[in-house]
What does this fold into?
Amino acid sequence: MYKIKLILLLLLGSLSQMEVSAQSLKLAKLKYNGGGDWYANKTALPNLIDFCNRNLRMNLATDEEVVDVSSPELFLYPYVYMTGHGNVIFSTNEADNLRKYLIAGGFLHIDDNYGLDPFIRLEMKKVFPELEFIEIPFEHPVYHQKYDFNKGLPKIHEHDGKPAQGFGLFYEGRLICFYSYESDLGNGWEDQRIYNDPESLRIEALKMGANIVAYCFSE
It folds into this structure.
């Protein structure tokens, strides 16, 4: 998928061939409007990147990037992470940009940080009005990249007794958006001192995150 986006940028004249050759693999956090805390989980993505580089032998840029949902630079990132607790609003232009990115081969991981659900479901309908989130079966490859999660997402933090669930948007048979719900997956990626979670639980969260990143590059 990463090559697809770089070819697209070449065709659009946004990058030269030399610039494409020099591109390093980067992951980014999605910045959005509406007042929600898109900037939550500050240590999560850097820790996941470090885990992927060490355990999956990836060559990901170590710094967390931030990209606005409306920006053409969205197409530079094969994996974009979105989190928060509250409101999300996509304008028509933002929804259109995100749709083009995902259709072109991009991958969005939405991570409900408890409270995001009622807002993001409405806004993703602006992006793909024809699609519905469906629960991803446990046998799907996203749960079986380097690490096997035979019962789906790990439960990192408890809020209201609901099970952790993984939902997805599928476009022409391809999983383009993974939505981790009631898991607090990104909290598990944070520095251990922040939530004082058992290290074994943090590792489970990081392993699942690594599976999602690996899947993003495998399709």
In short: Helices lie at 2-12, 17-21, 44-55, 92-103, 117-127, 185-189, 192-195, 199-218. The chain is about 35% helix and 15% strand.
